[in-house]
Amino acid sequence: MQQDLRIISRSALFSRKVFPVIWLTLTSLIFLSGLYHTKAFSIVFWIPLGMIIFMAFSLKKAFSGIADWVYDNGDSLTFVYGKEREIVYLKDVLNVNYQSMGSPDKVTLTLRNPSARGQSTNEVAFLPARINWVTGDISFKHLRRKNRLVDELIERVDTARRHANNAG
What we know:
3-stranded antiparallel beta sheet; elongated; alpha+beta; 168 residues
């Protein structure tokens, strides 16, 4: 069913699963190596431990609530969170926020009604697909990375809201 639809997000698998495992493994090895090779207590033990704690909180904040995949249905978007699916109609989107100069770049949609996933928030987020992988169409005029898919989504949301306001 979903194979025919256009995917407008990229997978968060590397950012959410692979990178944290690599980071935690390397810093844990540094910490354990320091414990093994040093006979007395040293302040150096706190640096890898602090790195582990900092990255755990940073990754949790950066990737909480991000959809695994987002499919474009024309007048709606289907957000996939594991086995759960949520359909968001473009006419119900109040705001499209594109954070482009962070890592990772992220699109957050503010909805009229709270999300159907049981959360009290009215926001859904995803990592947008990149057209140009290396530079991402960097615009120094606006000091942001441009993404044509996001610009198109913003225009479609505005059009859907105008049609909904004219019909209702």
